[in-house]
Each structure stands twice: as structure tokens, then as C-alpha cells.
Design a protein that fits this description.
alpha+beta, Heat Shock Protein 90, 51% helix
Amino acid sequence: MTLTYPGPIDLLDGVHRVLASPLLEVAPAFSRALGPLLGHSALLIFTEDCTGRPTKTAGDRTIVDRVTLAELDAIRAGFAEHTTWLADASALIAGRQHPFVAWMASTGALLVLTDPSRRAADGAMDEVLTLVGRLWQLVAQGIRHQVAAATPAYLADSRAASVERARTIAELTDAHSTTLESLLAVLRSRATGDSAARQSAVDIAANAMVQLRAVSDRDRLISEEPVATAFERLRDDLRPLVRFGDLDMQFVEPPVNGRALPGEVAHAGRAIVRGAVLALIDQADVSRIRVQWDCDGRNLLINIRDDGPGGLTPQVASVRQLAARVDALDGTLRVNATSGWGSEIAVLLPLDAPTAAPAASAEWGLSKREYEVLGLVVAGARNRAVAQSLSISENTVKFHVANLLRKVGATTRGELAALVR
């Protein structure tokens, strides 16, 4: 191998710093580590392991501030089976064509370097790309392990990011949908001229609507996880305890048609159960543990019970750590122990982030229903979610939102949210 810089020790030290960095600092640290090896204007990471912030970026602000999930997803779709990297290509990134190099990790996470500049000796580029791919495998696994640990700081940031992203997507979806629906209505009019031009415009607008909905659906897939799927992943996480020990693990599965869990709640639920099981088996004479999940539509309900001596208390260090994770998501944790009968840990995690009641002005003259719609819109709910929550149609929701915008004097949902806070 003909690499001249950086040396292997410097490179390993750089990767070590990446793996030791908190999730929000992974991209800048990795960019610094790779810079001497392969120059780039921006480093972009797209990983579905991080539901709140699936993109992690570093570098040129004109790129990192404008890159979209749809653009990164399009790059990822270009990988053929068994292909680990793409090079010498150009793609739409942040609204412009950029040369890029991309790598796919075994976790499904994508790494993209824009405007790459060769810093290896001639003939060594393949070796450089292969080396970066191996390093990316390590970093992607490190990201997955950090997410699985579900620290309180990560959970709080993830929930805040999820709420903000939901609000933005709701606003963009409604605005673009209204525009495109109006465009379609005009172009379908019999009074319009050239029929061929009209048909072409109709096709363009219809395709734009489909693409917009696809972006919204793609984001939903990233940010939510079916409760049954989340529970099955939990069982996989706990399998080593059953396989290599004498512990009898019993699982009570949640209803398969329950509400999908926000990603941060699914990650936290699994991490909390793992921690609770370890806290319980740390006691003497525990041979059986029962794990149950349920979902009442508003909360994830977790119950873990053992057959041990019944001596667990909230003051145990491992239980205090679990309580910190629960607090980060505004949940509750209770420990019930009965001497000779075992210990129980019960956790309630709200599926939605708490929001302060909107400060609606009396002069706006809102009806009770409009006030209910306002609260959900300010919390970032989309029209469909508002309709489901209030048991009304989406058209009725649109009617109420239009009235709210008119009464409050706002032009967008984001402006509406800002005015009532």
C-alpha cells in the first residue's frame, strides 16, 4: 500500500476520537480524521439508527444546511448488491450537482464525502477508498451501539429533533399539496388552451405530489417503529441471557396492531428493559424474569418482574440510571418489591412529547374545536394525525386550520406556532 499521510498511528488515534465522541459530535470528529487521507468539502451521514436526527453532517454550511433526506436516500439507492462504495460520480446534493464518494456500512448507514480531493499517491485511490470503507464500518457500528445505550442526553435531543422535524414536514407537505392541488385544478380546466401542454403540466404536477408524499412517508418510516417490531428486537437483544445462562425469560407480547412507537421511545424502551433485567439478575436467587410491553395509544407501558428475594429499591445505582433515561422522555418509573415474592419495575413512557398549552388570545375568538386543533398543530401534528386524534375528517381539519390562520393572522403553520407561544 502506497499511502504517505497520515501515518497509521495518527489515523487510529483519529478513529478512536470518533468512537469516543457523543453522537452529535461524530460527524465533525470523523471529518477531521479523514481529512488528511481524503479531502472533502462536507461529510454527510445518513443512518436510520438515529431516528431523531438521521443525518449527521460536518463541513461546508451551504451543503450541510441544505442537504435533504431525499437526496441522500437517492444516493443510497444507487448501491448495487455487494457494492460497498461509489466513486467518480456526481449527484444532486443540497440542490446542486456535486462530485462525491459514498460508502455503505453493513448496518445500512450511508457515508458521503462531497467534492473529494485525492491526497494519496498515484495508484493508491482504490486502497484509500477501501480503507475509508473499513473505518466507516467501525464508526457505523459505534453509532448503533451508542443509540442502543439510549443515554438521557441522546433521548432528549432525539425527541426535540423529532418534534421539530414533524412540524416542518407538516408545514411543507400542506403548503406544497395546496399549491399542487390548485395547479392541477387550473390545468384540468376545459377553458385552458393547448391540450397537449395541459396534459404535460398535469403529469408534472401529479409526479411532484407523489414525490412529496414519498418524502413524507420515508420520514415516517425512519422516525417510527411498529410496536411489535420493536418488541421483537428487544427479544433478540435479550437472547444471550437465555442462551448462555440459567435464566428463564418470559415475554408477554404487545398487540400487533398497536400504535407505532416514535423512534426515541422504541430505543429507550429496549435500553430500559435491558438495564432493568441486568439490575434484577444482579440480585441473588433470581431464576425467572417476565417482560411485558403494552401500548394504550398514548403511552408505552413496560413491566419487568422477577422471582427473587424482593429486595430491589429505587436507590440502587443501576435503577437510578434507568430513572434518568425515563425522566429524559417525561416518563415515570416505579419499583415495587415484596420480601420473598420478588421485585417489579414498572415504566410508563409517553409516546408524544409534552407541550405547553398554546396561549390563545381571547380576541381571536376561537371555538373549542379550533382550540383543540391549535394545540395539536402547535405540537407538530399533521392533518391526518389531528383528524385521528379528534375523530374528524382531514377536510374538516383543513377547514379549521384555514380558520385558525385567518383569525390569528398567520400565513403558515410555523408562523401560527410562533405566534401562540
